[in-house]
Structure formats: structure tokens, C-alpha cells
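Lab notebook, bench 4. Still working through the backlog of constructs that have no structural model yet. Next entry is a single chain of 85 residues. Request: give me the C-alpha cells for it.
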Amino acid sequence: MSSTHEHSSEPAYAPEPGETVRDDRGTGRVGTVMAKLGPYYQLRPIGGGREWDAPPENVHPISQAEILSARLRAANDRSRYGGCR
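Model written out:
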């Protein structure tokens, strides 16, 4: 008997450009979705800076508290270092 719920190649979560998300690889960086190019999402750090590619299976939504924390961290970095790191 075959199941009607086969494994899907599509991720369950598909963020839109402008949405703030977490890339769960490595350090769990937070970024803003800029675009989806091929299979990857292009994310930009909250405080600005160089974009990076994140595979869809590693991109997850975050809470408003996490977004606020990331924005505060970026503002502190700008204050401390005079710009993007």
C-alpha cells in the first residue's frame, strides 16, 4: 500500500523577500531575504553587508523578539565599530 504523503522536495517554509529569517547552519546567522536564486535564498545581514546563500532546508522563521535582538546587535556593532563588520 502506498502512502499519499510521500516526501516532498519542497521545503515547508518559503519566506518572501524582505522577511527576516535564521540560517540554521553553523552560527545561526539572522538575515533579511533578498531573493531566491535557483535553489538558494540570498540573505543579507540585518545591519547590512555581504549577502550569503542559504539552502532552503536551513532557512527558518524567527520571532519578533529575535528580530529585535538582531537589530540591536547590529546597531551596537555600528556604534562600536563605525559601520558594518
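Notes after review: Residues 20-81 form a domain with the SH3 type barrels. fold (CATH 2.30.30). The CA atoms of residues 1 and 55 lie 33 Å apart. Flag for follow-up if needed.
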